[in-house]
Write a structure and sequence with these properties.
The chain is of the alpha/beta class and about 280 residues long. It has one domain. The protein is about 50% helix and about 10% strand. The protein contains 10 helices and 6 strands; from the N terminus they run E-H-H-H-E-E-E-E-E-H-H-H-H-H-H-H. The strands form 2 sheets. Strands 1-2-6-5 form a 4-stranded mixed beta sheet, with helices on one face. A two-stranded antiparallel sheet has the order 3-4. A hairpin with a 4-residue loop joins strand 5 and strand 6. About 50% of the residues are buried.
Amino acid sequence: MDLSGGRESGNIEDRRGSGGRGLLVGGGLGTVVIALIAMLLGRNPGEVLNRTGVSNSAPRTEESTQAEEPARKLASVVLAETEDVWSGIFRQMGRSYQEPKMVLFTDAVQSGCGGASSQMGPFYCPLDSKVYLDLSFFNELSERFHAEGDFANAYVIAHEVGHHVQNLLGTSDKVHQQQQQSNERDANRLSVMLELQADFYAGVWARNSTKLKINESDIREALNAASAIGDDRLQMQSQGRVVPDAFTHGTSEQRMYWFKKGWETGDVSQGDTFGSEL
């Protein structure tokens, strides 16, 4: 991936350094839930936000902010490319694409869906149409989950923007309505389908991107990241066993399959992860 080929987005809202003091975040979440929901990608934050506890983080220094500059630029350029790609796809669909904003924060943040800590991982809030990202997550993705490379990080952003696409298309609302009428197991199954579609949309974006010169090596980085954060793998790491009824994002194999399908087809219409569920 060549970042020099892309512009930076004008939709970045930089809240780093505020420290997130006073936000009600964290607390009361077991390690399994943190691993499956708080750590990774894109769960509707309304389900897990506003927990008790207070962030005691200190504001970022100028030095630490400068150290994050490569990550900030990556996030900005990737977001800009999602804007261009999805605007074009929506035009082909006879629709208008409304660009999301990306909020960069340190440790804790107040979103339209409530307060959240960086333990949530990156997330999308449909109530304010914003993607929230603590740039330190990229380090964790590499060091803890061994998902290295710029495009692994780009995949994370593209996945969250995929949730924005679902919000614009009305898919998120349909899933939420179905979940309200479902038991926990069925609600989790719908969540998995939603997350897998966001993975698919990330692949569609990659296929239709022209400015970043995305290649097969980049795609391998994304697939490695998708594998590293599958529910089955995270459950095995955190509790030594796999509980399929508790899946919320899909297995490693499923996440890899749907991202790869999006990359191979580049066609939004091929991403029906729900079948007859909706």
